[in-house]
Automatic annotation (TrEMBL):
UniProt xrefs under Pfam families: DapB_C, DapB_N
Domain of life: Bacteria
NADP is among the record's keywords: yes
Name of protein: 4-hydroxy-tetrahydrodipicolinate reductase
Involved pathway(s): Amino-acid biosynthesis; L-lysine biosynthesis via DAP pathway; (S)-tetrahydrodipicolinate from L-aspartate: step 4/4
Organism: Muricomes intestini
Group of enzyme by EC: oxidoreductase
Length: 271
């Protein structure tokens, strides 16, 4: 039996890697009631039961629709892990209908991320390129390390993901770079170097980016701090996508009933 204080949730992209896991985890929580899933127009699974599409193992009695506007007024919070284009569309509808939004989609420009931050004036919104608890602990370690030795070290970020990932570098590695650049008193766009090749010597004070896509690697991020004669590596590996999906559900529960504002995963994790 469901609890009395259920947050009404819509999942965008419930047939996707993340959307299906988020739906499975949400379906097992007493404090969440799934209202609908939203998929793209023209898919053969539109109109089917959300539980079937997300492979929760049971019918949930609610459909996957292809029009968010038709169901949005029935929910409290929306979780979006889809595409850059759909993420921006979802943001617009959440503002128009005054609904809470957790967006974990990556691939946005910094101006687009700013749109999520500005939306905090009107709705409760949480954007996180990575909803894993341990990645956000790693971000704290990076902040301390870059503050202490960032200006002396050669900093390189290596991120690995599955062959299907659409964006590079990962949203997480961009956030990691921004955190380190900030404590080094720099703007990331001024010091990021993507895929260094050739014989030119490494330029001091820059952050190198390297993206690897292979097989079904869920997610790995390593930041190297290179000195002469020694190096420090800080790494996070995920073995599957569950850590991100659990974090996304925690974010949605956190956002339910909150005043308008731009919230962060650090607010949820209290770190
Ligand atoms: N914040 C975090 O911690 C994490 C973020 N991500 C990010 O989440 C995003 C999704 O990743 P992933 O699940 O691997 O990708 P998938 O491609 O597996 O899933 C994306 C889903 O979005 C759906 N979709 C696409 N366009 C629309 C639309 N117009 N309307 C509704 N649904 C749509 C797709 O439908 P269909 O399949 O029918 O095309 C698909 O189900 C990426 O940006 C990724 O980087 C991923 C993991 C963790
Ligand atoms: O696409 C993924 O899988 C992931 N995407 C996010 C990113 O771009 O950083 C988070 C995590 O790395 C998994």
């Amino acid at each position: 039996m469901k609890g009395v204080c259920e947050m009404k949730l819509i999942v965008v992209g419930p047939g996707g890697k993340m959307g299906s896991l988020i739906t499975q985890i949400a379906a097992g929580k007493d404090n969440i009631e799934l209202i609908a899933g939203v998929g793209p127009v023209g898919r053969d699974y539109i109109g089917r039961d959300l539980g079937q599409v997300a492979m929760t193992g049971t019918n949930l009695g609610v459909p996957v629709v292809d029009n968010l506007q038709s169901v949005i007024d029935d929910c409290d919070v929306i979780i979006d892990f889809s595409t850059r284009e759909m993420g921006l569309e979802v943001l617009k509808l959440c503002i128009a209908h005054k609904k809470g939004l957790v967006c974990g989609t990556t691939g946005f420009s910094s101006d687009e991320i700013q749109c999520f931050q500005d939306a905090g004036n009107e709705i409760p919104v949480l954007y996180a390129a990575n909803t894993s608890k341990l990645v956000n602990v790693m971000n704290k370690l990076l902040e301390i390390t870059a503050k202490t030795i960032g200006r002396e070290a050669d900093i390189e970020i290596l991120e690995m993901h599955d062959q299907w990932k659409k964006d590079a570098p990962s949203g997480t590695s961009k956030e990691m770079g921004e955190i380190m650049a900030h404590v080094m008193g720099k703007e990331l766009e001024d010091i990021a170097v993507y895929g260094r090749h050739g014989m030119a010597p490494r330029e001091k004070g820059t952050i190198g980016y390297h993206s690897l896509r292979a097989g079904n690697i869920p997610s790995s991020h390593t930041v190297y701090f290179g000195f002469m004669g020694e190096r420090l590596e800080i790494t996070h590996h995920s073995y599957n996508w569950e850590c991100f999906a659990r974090g996304a559900c925690d974010c949605a529960v956190y956002l339910d009933g909150k005043e308008p504002g731009f919230y962060t995963i650090q607010d949820v994790l209290q770190i």
